[in-house]
């Protein structure tokens, strides 16, 4: 989604009522984040809304991007936020061979997850199509990709083929490099 | 009073992990090898975070990470990495060259006998955001300053009043453009009917 370098459009302040709505929406989407939400977006803070190309809106606080949203899709955290609270998001892992493709912006395919190095949730924590998932890499501590799943984890295990995530935010992409001031 | 607030703040406070990011490629250091500037990143890490460097680039870590890949895939990855590195280096040198050659023109245009406007073009090649610079000029000189499209398709900053000398100084000092790359031009409008 952010393969090219992007530049931010107009920056505007978010109404406090809208900001409250965003907060509840985030907590709803990521229940595990609830105890930390005050740390990410303090109650009395002033969020900024930046318009990015392709109808993406980016929420930033004090010039640090926090969350982005494509139209009315679920709100997705910026990777730096994920690095700060990795345990709060549903995570799956890819094998080493897939890293370099992911970091150059390729779509994530199922074999990267089903092979020996990949990691998919067990019975309890299955993810559905459309869920937001954080992708971690084999042998690495930090997450490298976040986005919306195109295929449920159960399906991935079964089929072992096809696109898993095609539009996401990965390390070193336009959103990662975006400089707002 | 101060004590109570402190006690309350303590548990809620620092839960965010502090992650170190590479100063060269901005990725977390463990991903530097995929960034195309692996060598520079390694040097940077060694200098600024020696402990982390040791952990990431130790013999064991490297062999462990390599052993999980098949020989074939390793070779391909290596080739890919080399290509990427060369590409990054080429892009960097090209950019540097372009920057060295790019000229900034400060043009004084006569508007009305003793009134002038100053048009500045070529700043975007030196990595400046025209809109922001225009705003800056407007504030600095307390005049109107705007980004306008030129006939040739580019964009330039038009500042009201004759500020060419001040702008020259600003471009050299704040903008960091070498003095040789800045040129002042005087442009007199010829009026057919006086």
From TrEMBL, chain A:
Q: Which family does it belong to?
A: Belongs to the TMA20 family.
Coiled coil located at which positions?
Answer: none
Function of the protein: Involved in translation.
Q: List the Pfam families hit by this protein, alphabetically.
A: Pre-PUA, PUA
Return the InterPro entries for the record: MCT-1/Tma20, Pre-PUA, PUA, PUA-like_sf, Uncharacterised_CHP00451
Instruction: Please give the NCBIfam families that the UniProt record associates with this protein.
Output: unchar_dom_2
Q: What is the name of the protein in this document?
A: Translation machinery-associated protein 20
Q: What is its main location?
A: cytoplasm
Q: Which residues cross the membrane?
A: none
What Gene Ontology terms describe what this protein does at the molecular function level? RNA binding
Q: Which GO terms describe its cellular component?
A: cytoplasm
Where is this chain's protein located in or outside the cell? Cytoplasm
Q: Which residues form the PUA domain?
A: 90-172
Q: Which UniProt keywords apply?
A: Cytoplasm
TrEMBL record, chain B:
The residue stretches assigned to a coiled coil in this entry are 74-101
Q: Record keywords: Membrane included?
A: no
Q: Which UniProt keywords apply?
A: Coiled coil, Cytoplasm, Ribonucleoprotein, Ribosomal protein
Q: Where in the cell is it found?
A: Cytoplasm
Instruction: Please give the chief subcellular localization of this protein.
Output: cytoplasm
Gene Ontology biological-process annotations: formation of translation preinitiation complex; translation reinitiation
Q: Which GO terms describe its molecular function?
A: mRNA binding; translation initiation factor activity
Which family does the record claim for this protein? Answer: Belongs to the DENR family.
* Swiss-Prot/TrEMBL domain comment: The SUI1 domain may be involved in RNA binding.
Task: Supply the NCBIfam families for this chain.
Answer: DRP1
Please describe the quaternary structure of this protein.
Answer: Interacts with the 40S ribosomal subunit.
Q: What is this protein called?
A: Translation machinery-associated protein 22
């Amino acid at each position: 989604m952010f393969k090219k370098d992007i530049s931010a459009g107009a920056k505007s302040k978010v109404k406090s009522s809208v900001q409250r709505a965003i907060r509840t929406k985030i907590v709803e989407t990521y229940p595990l984040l609830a105890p930390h939400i005050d740390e990410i977006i303090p109650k009395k803070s002033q969020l900024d809304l930046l318009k990015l190309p392709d109808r993406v809106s980016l929420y930033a606080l004090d010039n640090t991007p926090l969350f982005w949203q494509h139209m009315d899709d679920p709100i997705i955290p910026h990777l730096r936020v994920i690095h700060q609270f990795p345990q709060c998001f549903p995570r799956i892992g890819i094998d080493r061979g897939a890293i370099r493709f992911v970091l150059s912006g390729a779509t994530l395919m199922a074999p990267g997850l089903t092979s020996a190095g990949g990691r998919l949730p067990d019975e309890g924590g299955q993810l559905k199509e459309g869920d937001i998932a954080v992708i971690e890499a084999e042998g690495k501590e930090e997450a490298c990709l976040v986005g919306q799943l195109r295929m449920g984890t159960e399906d991935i295990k079964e089929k072992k083929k096809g696109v898993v995530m095609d539009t996401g935010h990965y390390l070193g992409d336009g959103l990662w490099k975006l400089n707002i001031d | 009073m101060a004590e109570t607030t402190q006690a309350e703040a303590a548990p809620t406070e620092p839960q965010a992990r502090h992650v170190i990011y590479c100063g060269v490629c901005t990725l977390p250091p463990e991903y530097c090898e995929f960034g195309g500037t692996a060598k520079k990143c390694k040097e940077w890490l060694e200098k600024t975070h020696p402990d982390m460097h040791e952990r990431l680039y130790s013999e064991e870590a490297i062999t462990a990470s390599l052993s999980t890949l098949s020989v074939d895939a390793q070779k391909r990855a290596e080739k890919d990495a080399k290509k990427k590195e060369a590409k990054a280096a080429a892009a960097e040198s090209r950019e540097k060259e372009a920057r060295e050659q790019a000229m900034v023109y400060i043009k004084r245009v006569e508007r009305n006998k003793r009134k002038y406007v100053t048009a500045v073009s070529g700043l975007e090649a030196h990595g400046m955001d025209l809109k922001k610079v225009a705003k800056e000029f407007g504030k600095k000189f307390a005049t109107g300053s705007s980004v306008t499209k030129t006939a040739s398709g580019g964009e330039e900053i038009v500042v009201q009043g004759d500020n060419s000398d001040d702008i020259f100084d600003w471009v050299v000092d704040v903008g960091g453009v070498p003095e040789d790359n800045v040129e002042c031009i005087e442009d007199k409008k010829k009026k057919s009917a006086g």
